[in-house]
Amino acid sequence: MRFPRRALRIVGGVLVVYALLVATHLGEFWPFSIYPMFSQAGTPWTRAVVRELPSQADPDTLSWDAVSLQSLPGASYPLAPKGINQNDVANYVSKTDQWTDERVRGLRSLFTKGRTLSSPLFVFRVRGTLEADTVSVTATPVLLFEPDTTQLNPSPAARTVASAPPPS
Amino acid sequence: MSTLSRISHTLRRELFAGFASDTPGTWLYFRGVELFLLTYTVYFCWDWGVYIQQNISSVLLPLGLANYIDVSFMFGHNVALINAVLVGVLGLAGFFRLWRPAYLLALLAFHLQYVARYSLGEISHGSNLVGMGILGLGIALLAFRSEERRRRFTFGFLYFFIGLGYTSAAVCKLIGTGITWPDGRHLLMWIAERKVDTLSRFGAFDPSVLQEMVLHDYHFGTLFLLVGLLTEAISFLMWWRRLRHVVVLLVVGMHIGILLTMNIFFHASTYLLLLLGLPWHHIIDYVLDRVRTPVPSA
Predict the structure, then answer these.
(1) Could you report the per-residue pLDDT of B64-96, keeping only the tens digit for each?
(2) Least CB-CB distance to A8: which of B11, B58, B63?
(3) Which residues neighbour B169 within 8 Å (Cβ) at sequence distance 6 or greater?
(4) B198 inside domain
(5) Is B73 helix (H, G, I), strand (E, B) or coil?
(6) Residues of A numbered 118-157 whose beta carbons fall under 8 angstroms of chain B's beta carbons: which are they?
(7) In a domain, B195, yes or no
(8) Domain span at residue B152?
(9) How many structural domains is chain B composed of?
């Protein structure tokens, strides 16, 4: 068989495998993909921000209410210098339907595997929605990681995206 | 001749007829692309290996083979780092033509590393083109014995699947959102999202000039998104040799636009496209000819 014909047949075969794998795996079977990123424009998004509280902060007096991005308590806790990927934190807070012990441990381990906490960390779920011609951004506390313990938002409705009420 | 035959004939001619001449330029160019793909493969595997070892302890969203096997064995005992070493060794065996299945087995180990790294729910596309490159090299090494055919196949394979991938991304946008996808307010949303991500990563966010323009008037966003969507949509035209370099360089321009408007840089994909977007083999041959040609004395 001449080379170009054989080469195209192989490419055709790979294309069939590619199509079958992405069709049966929600569009993703690395390195095959339908590349759906940014395909759903204008839909609300959920990300995460972590704040570091003073080491003497009293957890009992903390507010668990949603705040704006400008009113976040504590100091910023940049993830990149710690070698933590912010997408991983965002995925935990946006894709968790129920905070089981395993989920809580998994997220906590991002901050504690190979290092110790010196101050409490407050993990916020940040949600953006398009309202007319502007973007509204709200941050809701989800978890508080203290050096020895973890606290979830006392309101079960505020802990996950699925149970959180839509922003007013 | 039927339509299917005509398409098949055109694709055979456009994708696999180039790079046939055995010049120093084509040889160096191909080996350079191969080395680039291998270097990035090893880089990704080590980067992910260290991250898996340090940070990951559970599977939140199984991807690829992780749907069928429990990849939590990758999370401890340095397994991810050992896998990275394995990828490197297999890559070298492939590069020096010591073992023909080497690249395809390296791809399998690369896939395992990917699904272990991204088991927390993020679906990253930054390494897909490199993965497709290793697949093309792996098939070429296994299916063809002559270096000339391996070279022609790998380049044709890459142009075909890269063009298809970008056009597929445009189709997804039109299916996912519809004709209103380039509405500039959507870019406002993504800029706000990237602002939160950047604050989360570094603690501060400074908008770029293009972002300032969109924040000032979202109609600029409409223009940027429209140009990006059109560029993606026509990417399959890189299958044709006459249009190839223009189309590939347009896609590079789109990636630079994504960097400036959304702070996202697909470095491996952009550098690979730069390698594929210019006739480097002709440039190398031209330079070598100039070097070899003796300069007439005055």
Answers:
(1) 999 999 999 999 899 999 999 999 999 999 999
(2) B11
(3) A34, A35, A36, A37, A39, B232
(4) no
(5) helix
(6) 126, 128, 130, 133-135, 137
(7) no
(8) 3-176+234-292
(9) 1
